[in-house]
Amino acid sequence: MSSSPSDLEPSAATDLDPLSKLVVGISSRALFDLDQAHQVYEYQGLDAYTQYQLAHEEQVLKPGIAFELVRKLLNLNNLSVDSPHVEVILLSRNSGDSGLRIFNSIEHYELDIVRAAFTNGAPPYQYLDPFGGHLFLSAHGEDVRLALEAGFAAATILPSTSKAGHREQLRIAFDGDAVLFSDESERISHEQGLAAFSANERELANTALSGGPFKAVLHTLHQIQSALPAEQSPIRTALVTARSAPAHKRVILTLRQWGVRIDEALFLGGRDKGPFLAAFGADIFFDDQQRNCEAAAAHVTTGHVPHGVANR
């Protein structure tokens, strides 16, 4: 695997202007339900897929797994007279021709998405940098891995039928190690066991963890929270981690050193995260471990972050 985001030179994903907005790249299959069209592509090929999309160009697509998340993100722009807090950009493997149906559906749902890159089958992650992107959400695992290796926060949106999510607030939950933080501690757990991990975290409790691929996303969400009314905040964040005492202390002090607010912190000591995420009402949860993601997807929309030792 290529160098992790924390090993890379600062980029748009890691070195944020204090006034920057959150720029999210979304794939068409994450935004809309394209399962039927994708089956045509899988079984009949690209030409048949293109013809299918053209034939159904005026048929509005149903919302996809990440649709409600995108809607809530864009709604944050209606809460302030200042410049927009969030921009969502469509990054699609469709061609401009086959992608017209997607923009027709965006217009139907009145989503404020005006920028797009249609790559006609090529990975679209390379356009994150010129668009100033911070986060990429896709149903295509390889595109997500390429975006992570290029230094951007990225996650593969897992299939889910869950309708969980808070009715009004945007609620985002993160795993800690290999997501918000580097995998430096998780490597010890994988290679030497839980006892060695606990001893290391106790010894380094006052030493901040390095940032992981989603540090910049959390930082920007914190900035947006600070710019909006504190009472009845439209955003609520949570750390949901398998850590427990005494390994919790290093995490808390790391966030304090970063100067980042996180609203809720759940230290579960290995308990199944799904019920806790449902109780929190997460609109999306990001985790690096595939088994955790598959379990969580039964409760909330989940993004797998294929980063760190658990994915090597």
Overall radius of gyration:
19 Å
Oligomer category: single chain
Structural class: alpha/beta
Q: β content, as a range?
A: 15-25%
Q: Distance N terminus to C terminus?
A: 7 Å
Folded structure, characterized:
It is a single chain. This protein has 312 residues and is an alpha/beta fold. 36% of the residues lie in helices and 15% in strands.
Tag the structure with descriptive keywords.
disordered N terminus; 312 residues; alpha/beta; Rossmann fold; 13 helices; 36% helix
Could you give a short description of this structure?
The chain has 13 helices and 10 strands.
Ordered list of secondary-structure elements with their pairings:
Elements: E1 22-26, H1 28-31, H2 35-44, H3 46-55, H4 67-75, E2 86-92, H5 100-108, E3 116-118, H6 128-131, E4 135-138, H7 141-149, E5 153-157, E6 170-174, H8 184-192, H9 194-203, H10 215-227, E7 235-241, H11 248-258, E8 264-267, H12 274-280, E9 284-287, H13 290-296, E10 302-304
Parallel strand pairs: 1-2, 1-4, 2-3, 4-5, 6-7, 6-9, 7-8, 9-10
Antiparallel strand pairs: 5-10
Helix pairs in contact: 2-3, 8-9
